[in-house]
Amino acid sequence: MSPVPINLFEWESRLSVLREMLHGATQGRGRLALVSGAVASGKTRLLDSFAEQAIDSGALLLEVTASRAERELPFGILRKIFDNAAMPPDVRSEAVTLLADMGPESTAAARMHVMSQISSVLLRLVDERTLVIAVDDVHCGDDHSLQFLLHLARRVRQARVLIVLTESPRLRQRQLTFHAELLRQPNCVRMRLPMLTEAGVAEALSNTLSATVAARLAPECHRLSGGNPLLLRALLDDWRAGGEHGEALQRPTPGDAFAQAVLGCLYRGEPDVAAIARGVAVLGDARSPRHLSSLLDLSVGTVEQGVQDLHECAVLDHGRFRDEVARTAVLDAAPAAVRHDLHTRAARLLHADGASALDIARHLVRGHQDGEPWTVPVLREAAEYALVQKELDVALRCLEHAHRACEPGPTRTALKARLVSVAWRVGPAVAEGYLPSLTEEAEKGWLAPRDIAPITSYLAWSGRLDTAADAITALSRTAGPGVTDGDDPAMGAALSASIQWLTMLSPPLRDRLPALGAGAAKATGSPHDVADLAHAHAAATLSTAFTEGRTDQAVIEAERVLQRYHLGDNTLQPLVIVLYALVVTGRLDLALSWCERLLGECSSRSVPAWQAMLSAVRAEIALRQGDLQVAAHQARGALAQIPAPGWGVGIGLVLSSLIQAETGMGHYDEAMALLEQPLPDGLFRTVPGLYYLRARGRCHLATGRYHAALGDFTDCGELAASWRMDTPRLASWRLDAAEAWLALGNPAQARSLAEEQLRRGAGDGRLRGGLLVVLARTDQQRQRLPRLKEAVEVLEGGDDRIQLAVALGELGRAYRAMGDFNRGRVYVRKAWHVAKSCGAEPLCRELMPRHAESGELVAAAAAQPGQGAEPQRDVEALTEAEVRIAVLAAHGNTNREIASKLFVTVSTVEQHLTRIYRKLNVKRRRDLPAKLSDSSLTGTV
C-alpha cells in the first residue's frame, strides 16, 4: 500500500505535550508519556513524528517495537533497547553481560538487582545528552521487560530521560498492575488518541488532492473508514486504482486495498478479535453477544470486549460492518471448513431462537453440509418467502439444499417438482437437468396429483413428448381403471388435464394416450387443484378456438380462464395458450389488452422466462396486426430472455413470428439466418411446428424459392389432415399454397385451392379477404373489381393492415387496368401509406417502385403541417369506414350518434376512433377538424 500523508493537525496538541515533556527532560525533569489508542488509530505514526523531532533536538533516541510473538521471551523489550544501533558499544556490552546472568530459575530478588544495575548503565548515558526511550505496542511486551520499564520510570524523575510508551486500550490481566503503577507516577502523562473526525479526514485528503475534491470526498470517506487512518489510506488507494479521474470524479468505493486493510486491523489486535469479527460477519451484526458467544464458544465478556475493540478501531459501526466489502473480506479470509461450520451453527442457533425461515435458510445453504431432517420444512418455507422478495437464486438454493437433505420418497419428489417450477422462472434450460429423474419417480407413484399436469407440460415443452406420454400411460395403469370412474378424483383430474394438454400441443399423441372415461372428464371440472383446472381449461379453449363455428364460445372460455387464474408457476403456460386462443379467433384487441396486463405483472416480479413467453405472444399479436417492427422487437426480446436452446418446442412460435416479421420488412438475410437455427426433435409433431413450417414457407415465397415454399405449405396441409385438424384457424395453408402457385405461373391451381377453401369455410375476414384477392388475380380484368372491392371492405373491418395494403394495391391496379387512372392512383397511394406504416418495405417498392426509388413520398411524409402534406398523407392512411367515422366525429357527433347514423355498434365506433387517433397522431376528438380540414375527403363523405 502506498503511503498517504496524514495531516497531524488533530494530533498537534499531543505532539505539543510530548515536545514540552522533552524540554522538561532536557532540564533534568524526567518524564513518562503513555499514549493509548485503538488498533490503526495512528499511534505509531504519532510516535514516528515525535521521534524525528527528538533526533532533531539532539536527544539520544532508543526505539523499540514490542511483538506479540515475543511475549514469552524474558527481557525481550530490554534486549531490543540495547540492540539499538544508537546504543554505544561499551554500554551494550555491559548490559548484555548483566542479562546473560539471568536464567529462568532466577529469583525475583536477583532480577531486581540486575534491573537496578542495568538502569544505572542507561542513566550514565544522560550525562552527555537527553535520553528518549520509545516503546511502541508496549501491551505486547513480556512481563520482565514491563517490570524493568516500571523500575526505570521510578528512577528518572530527576534525570534527563523521557519514556514514551504506546498501548492498546484493551489490556491483559497481567498488564493491569503495570498500567496502574505507571499512572501512579507523578511524572506520567496519559494521552488518548481518537480516530480522525470528518474535518481531519478532509485535511488528510487535502495533502494529495485539491481542496475541492477533498471536501467532496471527505464525508463518504469518513463514513467508510470511521476516521481510521489505515482504512482511509486504503480507501484512497482503491479510489485511485479506479482509473483516470479529475476534479469531478466518482465517489470512493472500497476495493481490494480496503479489504486487506480491514484484515490488517483484525490481525493486529488480540487473537480473539478476528474470530469475533468472523462471527459478526456470519450473523450480520453484533446485536446479540449471547448468540456470538454460543456461535464461537467464547464467554459473553470476551465477546463484548472484542466487539468493543472492533468499534474502537472503526471496523464496526453500530454493530455492523461499515461496508459489505469488509464483511465479505472477513468471511473469505476464513478457511472454508471454518466458514461452513459457522453458518451451520448459526442456523441451529437461529432455529432454536425462533428466527424466520428465510434467515435460517441463508445460513443453511451457505453451510454446504448435509442437512438434518428439521431443515427440510424450513428450507421449503424459506424458498417461498425468497420468491416473494424476488430472490430467485436464494429460492433455488433453498430447494436444492432441501432436496439433498430429504430421503427418497413422495416428499422429495414434491420438492423436486417445486424445484423444476422455480428453475423454470430463470429459464427452461435450468430445469432440464431435473426432469429425467422426476419422470422415474413419477412412474413409481411418488408424484402428487397436483404436480402431474405442470410436470407434463414441462416435459412436453422440452420436446420429451414420448416420455410425457409414457409417464401418463404408466400413471394411468398404476392408478387402475377406477380412476376414470371417479374413485380417485384428484388423480383423475390430473390425468385428464395432462392428456388434454398433450393432445392439444401434439395431436398425434391421441393415438397412444389412454382414453378418458366419463368419470375422468367430470373430474376435470371439480375444484381439486388450480394447476389441473388451468391446464385442462386452457387446452379445451385452444381446441375450441381451432374448431370452425365456435369462435364466440372460445372467446368466452378464454376470458373466463384469464379472469379466473392468476399468473404463477403452474398457470403461466395455460395463460399463454389462452392468449394464443384469442389470437386464433381474431380477437386481437382482447389478446393485446390481457397480454399487456400480464407483461406488467412480469416486469414487477422480475421473472425472465415469464417475460419471454408473454413477449412471444405479444410478437404474434403485432404480426397479425401488421406491426412488423414491434413483432420483430418483441420476438428478439423473447429470445434474449430465453436463449434459443431453452425454448424447446416453443421455439416454433417465437421463430415463426420473427421470421415473418423480418421477411415482411425485407430483411431477408436475417430471416434466412433464422432458418439455420437448430430445431428440437419432435417439433413437427406439435402445433408450434406447424406455425414454424408456414413461416418458413412465407420466407421462401418472398425470396423467390417458390417450389420450396409450395412444399412447406403442402406439408402443413398434410400434417393438419393427418391430425384431423384441417382448419384454417390452425393453418391457412391453401391460401399460402395458392399464392405459391400464382408465383409459379399456375393460376388454375391457385384458383382451385382458393375456391376449395371458400367452400370449406373462410374462417375469419382476414382469410376471406386474402382468398378474394387470390381469386381476383385469376379473374378476367372486368371481373376483378367486385371481388377486390369486397376484399377491401372485409379487410377494413379487421386488424391485418398488411393484407389490407395488398388488397388496396390490387384494387388500384385493377382501376388502372380499366383506364380509371385517378382512382387507381388514390388506392395505390393509400395502399403505400398503409404498407409504410407497417414497415413493409418490399410491399412499398412493389406498389410504387418509382416513388420508392426517388424518395418522393418519403419527402412528402417529412413535410411540415403548414405545407399540407402531413394531413393529406395521414388521411390517406385511413380506411373508408374510418374516414366516415372521423368526419362525423370532427363535426361534433357523439359516439352513439355516429353509431346510429352508420348503423354500427358504439363499441365498433370506439375501436375505429382508437385506430384513427393513432394514424392521425392526435390524442383527442377536438384535434380532428384541423387534421381533416386539408383533406378533400371531408366534403365527399
Description:
The chain is mainly alpha-helical and about 950 residues long. About 65% of the residues lie in helices and about 5% in strands. The protein is built from 50 helices and 7 strands. It has a 5-stranded parallel β-sheet with strand order 2-3-4-1-5, sandwiched between helices. The chain has a two-stranded antiparallel ribbon with strand order 6-7. A hairpin with a 2-residue loop joins β6 and β7 (about 320). The longest helix has 18 residues, at about 590-605. The protein is elongated, with a radius of gyration of 43 Å.
Q: SS-based structural class?
A: mainly alpha
Strand order of the largest sheet: 2-3-4-1-5
Rg for CA atoms: 43 Å
Q: What overall form do the CA principal axes indicate?
A: elongated
Keywords:
941 residues; mainly alpha; two-stranded antiparallel ribbon; 50 helices; 4% strand; elongated; disordered N terminus; disordered C terminus
